[in-house]
Amino acid sequence: MTRQVEYFPQLVAAYIRDKLPADQQYASLFSKPLAELTEAEIQQLIQLAQQQELRIHRFKRSMELPRVQKVLGMLKGLYPSNLLDIGSGRGAFLWPLLDSFPTLAVTCVDMLDYRVADIQAVQRGGIEQLQAVQADVTRLPFAEQSFEMVTMLEVLEHVPDTRRALSEICRVARQFVILSVPSKEDDNPEHIHLFAQHSLRDLLLEQGVRRVSFDYVPGHMLALAHKG
């Protein structure tokens, strides 16, 4: 018996409804409010996507990365009113975030236009609290203190001008910033920085945050900065 692949149901359904033309035979699957779709109806949408060879693998509910689990746990203790996620990429953090906090207003930033387009497709498909913008972390197109929480996982080590990036993140954050970075050297040529706890703390304190706490998961360091 073939094991059924499990997806993030609302997210994969939203993406499919935006990407596929409405099938007259299954018109209700495309017109019905997303939140009202049954599990069986979402499975029908997935089957339609597979028949038309729409790539939906990014929405598979696989084992969450330890750093993602840790950050979701932090958020459950803080429960922000809105959140900016920088470097959302393929959704390794974004999809579990939206699944865990279905009413949270989330804005995403990524430098790659096709990543932004995928996230915008999910928004158009019915995840109305989601927005996505193509932008550089060193030049964020938002006003000061626009977001109660800013998250940036596995991005800072790629950014040449880390001070400028942290300045922008702290500028648009109202209360909290969560970062994750590698905690040890690796062979990824795109990782141009390796941060020690004291150096990352100093960089954040330079931007005016009041305190910084740290936690670790295998291979990664997480920082929670408080502005208030």
UniProtKB/TrEMBL annotation:
Gene Ontology MF, one: S-adenosylmethionine-dependent methyltransferase activity
Keyword terms: Methyltransferase, Transferase
SUPFAM superfamilies reported in the protein's UniProt record: S-adenosyl-L-methionine-dependent methyltransferases
GO biological process: methylation
Domain Methyltransferase type stretches: 84-175
Organism superkingdom: Bacteria
PANTHER family per UniProt: GERANYL DIPHOSPHATE 2-C-METHYLTRANSFERASE, ZGC:194242
Protein name as annotated: Class I SAM-dependent methyltransferase
Origin species: Ktedonosporobacter rubrisoli
